[in-house]
Amino acid sequence: AQTVTQSQPEMSVQEAETVTLSCTYDTSESDYYLFWYKQPPSRQMILVIRQEAYKQQNATENRFSVNFQKAAKSFSLKISDSQLGDAAMYFCAHPGQDGNKLVFGAGTILRVKS
Amino acid sequence: NAGVTQTPKFQVLKTGQSMTLQCAQDMNHEYMSWYRQDPGMGLRLIHYSVGAGITDQGEVPNGYNVSRSTTEDFPLRLLSAAPSQTSVYFCASGRQGKSSPLHFGNGTRLTVT
After folding, report:
1. Per-residue confidence of chain B (113 residues) as pLDDT tens digits?
2. Number of H helices and number of E strands within chain A?
3. Are the beta carbons of A101 and B40 separated by less than 8 Å?
């Protein structure tokens, strides 16, 4: 069974500082993708970043980047220059063997202090 | 561009009642799915569909039915609501393939009393 583990139920960061959210996963696949989603209080699910397992380079989207360690099956999200609008629940997700069937971690609540 | 439209946003049911959560997408996505979100458990897959006329069970299918008569629509039916089905429900769609992200509706908060 595919599993995704987010070991930090809650994290806090000071505005303008950097925070890293952890995620580990389990898979028997060799070619796969990993995703981070953001869920603000509005409940909307927003795609933050996507990483392909075959790519050596870590994905980056503006202030968001990942640290992808394939051998360790680790996929952490780094948020630089944190802003108040980054406060949300963050979910790590990994597709199951059938492609689209995303398996989600339990989520990490990120609080941003001004 | 509407994306994934999910209705209603909120619903309160009594135990034993039935209802249908509606989901429609206008992106011509082959794949559609329903998740439920519960505190501390992330999102769990209820049912999914890879195309019109094809549906399959996810991780937590008991108590729910789905059908996919068109590419656009994927309703979720609660046959006899139970308090354990109190949750937030999300419909999501995407193109086929492991590289494609899912696009989500805005969710339905369901309370069963």
Report:
1. 679 999 999 999 999 999 999 999 999 999 999 999 998 889 999 999 999 999 999 999 999 999 999 999 999 999 999 999 999 999 999 998 878 899 999 999 999 99
2. 0, 12
3. no
